[in-house]
Amino acid sequence: MTDRTADRRLVLKRLGQASAVLGASGALGAWGLRSQGRFGAAPAQGRLRDLRVADNAARPPIVVARGTDPALLVRAALAGIGGMERFVARGEAVLVKPNMAWDRTPEQGANTNPEVVAEVVRQCRAAGARRVVVAENPVHDAERVAERSGIRAAVRAAGGELVLPGASGFTWTALGGSVLASWDVLSVLLQADRLVNLPVVKHHSLSRLTCGLKNHMGLIGGSRGRLHQDIHPALVDLASAFRPTLTVVDATRVMRRNGPTGGRLEDVETVNAVAAGTDPVACDAWAARQLGLDPADVGHLVLADGRGLGRLVAGAGTVTEVVANG
Amino acid sequence: MAKVLPVVPEAAATRPKGPVYLPRVLRRVYQAFFLLLFLASLGLMTEEGIRRFPVKLLLELDPLSALAVLASSWVLPAGLAVALAMVPLTVLFGRAFCGWICPVGTLHHVASWLTRRLRRGPHHHVNRWRPHFRLKYLLLVALLVAALAGTLSIGLLDPLSLATRSFASALLPALSSVAASDGQRPRTFAGAWLTGAVFLALLAANRWIVRWWCRALCPLGALLGLGARAAVFRIHVDPALCNDCHRCVRDCQGADEPFDRHRVSECHVCLNCVSVCPEDAISFRAFAPTASPNGGVDLPRRQLVGAALAGAALLPLLRASSAEAAPETIRPPGALPEDAFLARCVRCGACVNACPTSALQPSLATAGLAGLYTPVLVARRGWCEPSCTRCGQVCPTGAITPLTPETKGWTRSASNGAPIRIGTAFFDWGRCLPWAMAVPCVVCEEVCPTSPKAIWLEAAEAVRADGRTVRVQRPRLDPDRCVGCGLCEAKCPVATPAAIRVTRAGESRDPKGGFTLGRTS
């Protein structure tokens, strides 16, 4: 009697164990057969939004301020095109993109003037921006660049937030360009409501001019050197994908030779000007003239004009000059 | 603690059994069948063989591969779902796979039988269970944890992968290099000596301990051993009939000690003990009441945690060793992107076996330690045949996607869609005959199989040492047409090394991996 009970208990126990193993492996197998897998799912795809604001016929497309105080220059140029309030609404997240690519000091003119960066950040804060991110994917070591360019200290003092993207700060994004179909784009750009492009004016051995359109290369990751195989269409692809809200051109110092890295102070000329505009092509065309270049000789500007991204030849009265002296 | 054995006279332990024990005969038939199936599968990895026979079935039956691939890639490839059939087998009969099916087990079985007279000492001592046989469970835990982290190094020790790899890239080529008499160039493989030596050394270990590989190391055996804890059918010793002669231990394959408290996790179900018991005290039956707790193998928690930690540390250390794969890490056409590939490839070498030109080689150092024994294309040894898709057809895990000549895209015009690219060829002009020495040569252009050809010729005048000006055609490469097949490198007469060499640059499995703007997605 007891033996039979023990037998029955053993049979139930063994059958239970066997069923448990069968069930567990079956469930695991069924899950595995349906699973997309750790690598199976398509990688996250970023989507770019149009960050521009409405045109305002009453305002000139580009205003140039001349004077010696960089902060005053920024304020005067911005005032001329309607003030930062026209571009940044209360509670918005703004991405400010200076040229901060090189291990150079401000005097060497390879990066955007930190005083100009600081004033743009302050203006965004004053307009009510919830968050002002200053970001760049630099060529040289990011930490060193942030320090030596003076931009980290300037951004901190002005109440902005410096983002150095590292390896994981990019999102694979469709650009829909003629040579750039998809590329890694700074994730902070995809999160921003507004984009202020803040280039410095420099000579470049291949693209001739480094200014706003060329500055977009700091918004992307990956093997950027490949863009040089077809630089002008590639820059226009970036320009038609990013469409900044506002361009502020730093021409306080202009690098005339040996760009875009420079290094010699003799290559840098003090021009003491800042331009602000909503037409990125017109801004770069103005910058080209500061270098003594005919904008019609700069391939990517001609192509950008052809694609309707802005106007290469400014009409009468489109460039307004103001003098800003404190 | 194992009980101390009384000394039993050998004579008493060798009483003949009498009539033939049918299940044991049946087991031998199974073993022979699956060993032949294993060898035939290797031999049949040809165009016709792949079309007509399930040549990868045995590899797909491997539940360890299935579990490990699931752990590392979170996917159970449809082919590997066959391995689920091993679950009912195991919960019914325990490790019957080890004793009846596994070709590696069979080879070790034979090796232990051949060396039976060399093992000295009383058999019931020589053939007892030893604490270090727990090692296989610890290896299983460590390698499964590593698989969860994303590396499939478990394939290095999986017996079916180990055997496929060893036969394909060491033992069979070695055999054919001895036997080949028709002047045919034997197939050669990187590290064949090492691959073969490891396999033979494991077989040789039988001279000291019967099936030491199966008992101490095999992680598949360990996995099945865990499943066998739930086995319905088990060895049963009737205590009323057993006279403690320990004859059952002599031919035991798993060191599961039937006489004592039978270790069901270690039993290979060879049924030798049932067959030889002079008292007919041993039977194999359902719901047998005798069994040791934990299947007969206690696994101290500290050892398990240690093994898990070791496994968890493996991948971060491997990752810290290399930023990216070496330029020569050219993967077979259809290979998944590198991360996914390493998480799927069980290192079985079926692709290496199937490759008709021996271009696919097991990687020893090329792909780093994380890629040990993964396949790489070595264009000096062979090239990727334009219409061949064998490697993907025989891959049991889908690490190499099965292609057709059409989806591979090397036999049609490039205008019909993008072909699979495995790399790009680069000229070394300092070695190239027309470029460096004004010697006419067009071999690379001649053999270039893409259409139109990726290698084109530029007419030029070159000056020779004696001052004569000669017309040469200098080969140049269009990177947008090159698929990286390696035919140019394989046939380049300069050879040591070739004047044109392939690297993995521009491989299409990596959408960001191009180097020209024309190749970005």
Q: What do you see in this structure?
A:
The complex is a heterodimer of chains A (326) and B (521). Chain A is elongated, with a radius of gyration of 27 Å. In chain A, β8 (200-204) and β9 (208-210) form a beta hairpin. Chain A has helices at 2-34, 70-80, 114-126, 142-148, 151-158, 187-191, 212-215, 231-242, 280-290, 299-306, and strands at residues 62-66, 93-98, 131-135, 161-163, 170-174, 182-186, 194-198, 200-204, 208-210, 246-255, 268-277, 319-323. Chain A has one domain (62-323): LarA, N-terminal domain (Rossmann fold, 3-Layer(aba) Sandwich). By secondary structure, chain A is an alpha/beta fold. Chain A starts with a helix and ends with a strand. Chain B is mainly α and 521 residues long. Chain B has three domains: 18-296, no CATH class; 338-406, Alpha-Beta Plaits (2-Layer Sandwich); 419-519, Alpha-Beta Plaits, CATH 3.30.70.20. Chain B is built from 24 helices and eight strands. Chain B has helices spanning 10-13, 22-43, 47-52, 57-60, 63-73, 86-93, 96-101, 103-114, 123-126, 135-149, 159-179, 192-204, 212-217, 219-228, 247-250, 272-276, 301-321, 338-344, 350-354, 390-394, 405-408, 433-437, 443-447, 487-491, and strands spanning 233-237, 282-286, 360-362, 375-377, 424-427, 455-463, 469-477, 500-503. In chain B, the strands form four sheets. Chain B has a two-stranded antiparallel ribbon with strand order 1-2. In chain B, α10 (135-149) packs across α14, α10 (135-149) packs across α17 and α11 crosses α12. The longest helix of chain B is centred in the N-terminal third of the chain and has 22 residues, at 22-43. Chain B is elongated. At the A-B interface, α1 and β6 of A face α5, α6 and α18 of B.
